[in-house]
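Researcher: Please predict.
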Amino acid sequence: MKSPAAALLQVPNFPLRLRFEPLEAWPVAARLASAASDLRTRLDARLGHPRERPPWRSAWRDSPLSDVIEDVVHRPLRATALDGLCNTLGFALKPLARHANDLAWHGQHDAYWVAYYDAWQRLSSVRYAPNLRERLDLWITLAGSASWWWPREGVCVLSERPVEVRVEPAQQGRRLHGGDGPAIRFADGWSAYAWHGTRVPAWVATAPTVARINAEPNIEVRRCAIERIGWDAYLDEAGLDLLGTCPDPGNPGAELRLYDLPGFTRVLLAVNGSLERDGRRRRYGLMVPPDVDDPLSAAGWTYGLTGDQYSQLSRRT
């Protein structure tokens, strides 16, 4: 199928009553989940469980290979493939799910764990038992050739990989950012949208308006839509009530402005303390609670400080 959405509509339903059934009587999707869990457990036992450590340790000279594989392969891929792409697609597919037991596999978005185990056998002296290697190779093939897929008795519904994925650098890996269009697009046109890593409905990217923003109940979606059209443009058109202004003690020469927003919240308009790449200082808005009455207290609240404490800052970034 051309997209996960098209594939999901073709997935047959099945009763999911597994509690008292032997494994061989489970539906194929559940048996596959058990097999995958067993594979990962056996591979982990072969590798051992690396202890938690700060990511920067992998940059040290003579760092253990376990640090390098975890911090260069597993963590960035998990942040990008699972936390970013996979979760965004799952959110977009939610309205199409006709039943709660649509057990799906994620194809290329399983790369974060598939690549982790593959890196060990490629880069180290670790050798898996032949049966484990054969089972892992099957998952490697799936990750390289398909998007989401649904196994059922006698049939397997697969979707093609997307034709376009738009991302930007993030602290770990990359995050979805579509700008003025889809962040993920499939061949049949079905798409998912994201703004700097936050899942958003299509209108945020394609047709943001003040009326839509003010009617949006989700604060994060509203924030993304305002950023999409620009805080200055939004404030000019929305005609918000200005509650107060004051000089920003943490950013000399800049001003803090507190506005009342529809929907029981307020926004503090501030100026970035650091220069952008083009040499300008970006204006941005920060959502603050509705009981914050002055801009200094609002600025302090964003740092977990009181207004008096914030006023003592010498410089913020």
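Model: The chain has three domains: 4-158, 164-206, 240-310.
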